[in-house]
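Box S2. Input/output pair 1.
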Amino acid sequence: MNRIQKILSLMLALAIVIAPTLSKADSNLGIEKKVKAYYTIEQNTSQELLNHNEDEPLAIASLTKIMTYVLVMEDINSGKYKLNDVVLVADQYSKPEASTMQLKKGEKITVNDLIRGMLIVSANDAADTLAAKSEGSVENFVKRMNDKANELELKSAKFYTASGYPEKNKDNMMSAKDLAKLTAYTLNKYPQILNYTKTSTLSMPQRKYKQESTLPFLGKIEGVDGLKTGTTDKAGYCLISTMNLKPQDTENKVISVLLGAPSKYDRNEFQKTILEYVRTSFEPMQVVESEKPVITKSINSAEDTNVEIYPTEDVKILYNEKTGVQQEVKIKDNLKAPIEKGQIVGEILLDTGKGEKRSISLITKKQYKKADTMTRLKRSFNYTYKLVSDLIAS
């Protein structure tokens, strides 16, 4: 590699390192003092887009039902019971003042209809009936909820009920960040949840029951297809929304958790502010391409001294021009030939705004053989001669 190429490579490396950081995103939306917390991520990568007080454990009310759904789906997938199994309602679970689908003791209803009621109209009696079906009692089911939270490393989670309705003045608790993590897990493992949550009206003619979904944006904000509301005195008004970043593009789905708004109107307006900001401020961008070398490094000991180094994978992020993106290329010290095809020779540290750096391995895509002794001596002599000449000339 000649001197100009070396200088250009150095400039490129420096440019990568000092690029603007895509750090914890711009949180100045004007709602920070009006809600307890919010946290917004991209589903597939968990890239953090917006955040405010996201780590504090807070009351979550009926957002609880996402975990209840996860455990029910585990049961169905394991063959414990089926969607079309008929359940006998063994107790009058729901409190009169709580969300309900008006189940009666002794009534028979399918598991699928109970899931519909739990997710579309946030029916507490449906959640409790499913819990009893699954584990024999709500209490046993709640123990399993806490076990699942530990398995998923939801460190802030604490469950007392299957529905989210407070029990003995104890509210289910979780942070906005852990709720986003749970939601992403649910969407990735059980994407059929959206078939329920995008339904605008729960209609059961055989029960003479019809009620609108509790979700505020269905049919009003294009691309919104879920997910869950929750309200108690302690929790305030809470909402998890899922939205395709671009209305018809399902590749990038946004998960937005909002906790503790003072009213239903405020909850809807604040979440709308978040969703509109994300949609207008973030664009998909491929920042690392596996078919393009990130750097060509001069290795004196190789027959071909220009060693092209590639990332092992493609990486796309949601890019915000206000915060930029940061990459740092690190090549192993004392890298010498021979270098095998596919050998790991370094890494890219990519900051995508999650508060931590993601590492992508760097490899060579062909073999670089070791140069013979005379060739290496000649290169060393030429390099030293050139260096001395430049110093004398300066």
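Box S3. Input/output pair 2.
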Amino acid sequence: MATVVVGLSGGVDSSVAAYLLKEQGHDVIGLFMRNWHDTTGTLEGDCPWYDDQIFAELVAKRLDIPFRFVDLSEEYRRRVVDYMFSEYEQGRTPNPDVLCNREIKFDVFLKEALKMGADYVATGHYCRKEEQTADGQTIYRLLAGADKNKDQSYFLCQLTQEQLRYALFPIGDLQKPEVRRIADEQHLATAKRKDSQGICFVGKVDLPVFLQQKLAAKDGNIHEILPSWRGYGRIGADADVEQLAQPYRYTVRDGKKIGTHRGAHFYTIGQRKGLGIGGRKESLFIIATDVEQNVIYVGEGDSHPGLYRRALRVLPEDIHWVNPTERMVDGESRRYQVRIRYRQPLQQALLIKRADGLYILFDEPQRGIAAGQFAAWYDGEVLSGSGVIVE
């Protein structure tokens, strides 16, 4: 049997993961990561890290496994939070959870576990790993979790073969209610604890307050763009994918000023809360932000054409294949199922590789495509690759 270091987070999923591994006969060690100290912007009622640690310790004691603690907050700040601030400052929409898994859980944390003599690291993610042998070489495949409602493979879309080599996902074949049942039967302290929400290791935050740690508030104007705006009719159904991947470009002359805001970098495309403008038949949605001019553009109603696009682009250097042997060459096209955010149902799309990047052409227009988001593409249950949306 192997030595497995489990990332005990203080939640029910990692607790059951540790239990299952011990039941399988592995030598299990619980390792708790402290990755964030500052509570600025954290919403009241969100469990701070020390509560998480207490629950993790209680689980380790119940399972009679060693418990260790490691402070990775400096690496987390530098490799995840600073990245997040930088992306918002540029008017992009980052996904810190994807970076947290790539840079912290399966990099810094993995290295700490290997120092402790681990053969593998395990987490409570709802996803699965498969091994295949091709030409004498082992290939690791990342699969969606069996619980389609909790599938977290999207958050692991940037993992490499080397990272997957060491990874175990003990609850990937289980449904969430079954995980809760096991925790309850084993009298684990986390059995009825609520799932964590918000930013990985930071928690649920008031985003503008959180971002104001580094990004200054700056008053600007909100302009409304009507559905009849002339730019929506310029791109026909037979347009080239390069045209379809371009976001709409607005100027203040294209719409009417209807309000003010505290900083365009605090908002993202598709957002409807936090604008402070009422009295409308339908909600207002952000359809574009201009951080250079500090202007937000909005449209009324969920069906506003400014919310939807048919295509997006990923720069060549941002294209990631979980199995590098599957990478596409210039001029090649393939069909995949794609999502651009966690929990979004998979969307049918054509991937087109060109010299200037990878284009994703959806069968149906997609709502709220924003620069900085990760697009992940699947071949059935297998997550094949991912990339950062350029604009």
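Caption for Box S3: Residues 211-306 form a domain with the SH3 type barrels. fold (CATH 2.30.30.280). The radius of gyration is 22 Å.
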